[in-house]
């Protein structure tokens, strides 16, 4: 596992070209995500909901959540030592509650 490779894909300064297979929207969403820990097949990230990724009502946009699931899922591939992540064919997200602007969030992504 190369934690530095995982970190590079999640750095706030990463451009769309730095994030394998991504778009400018992906780098916009990933900006501000901090990699707290990475181990084989698992990443732990944190971020604070900001107005740029929130609805006019002040809640985290559901599309941002799906993008985070996709991009952080790719980070799990890198943490497992796989050099590329492929393409997401299906993403299923269960929403437990809303996340408001200013709220810190933690994201654990495990490979399965």
From TrEMBL:
GO terms for molecular function: fatty acyl-CoA hydrolase activity. It comes from the Eukaryota. Transmembrane segments: none annotated. Gene3D superfamilies: Hotdog Thioesterase. PANTHER family: OS04G0436100 PROTEIN (PTHR21660:SF37), THIOESTERASE SUPERFAMILY MEMBER-RELATED (PTHR21660). This is Thioesterase domain-containing protein. The lineage of its organism: Eukaryota, Viridiplantae, Streptophyta, Embryophyta, Tracheophyta.
């Amino acid at each position: 596992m190369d934690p530095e490779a995982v970190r590079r894909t999640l750095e706030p300064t990463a451009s769309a070209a730095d994030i394998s297979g991504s778009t400018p929207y992906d780098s916009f969403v990933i900006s501000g995500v901090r990699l707290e820990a990475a181990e084989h097949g698992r990443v732990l990230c944190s971020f604070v909901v900001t107005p740029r990724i929130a609805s006019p009502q002040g809640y985290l946009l559901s599309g941002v959540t799906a993008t985070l699931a996709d991009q952080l899922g790719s980070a799990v591939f890198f943490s497992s030592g796989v050099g590329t992540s492929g393409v997401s064919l299906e993403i299923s997200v269960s929403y437990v509650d809303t996340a408001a602007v200013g709220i810190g969030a933690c994201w654990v992504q495990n490979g399965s």
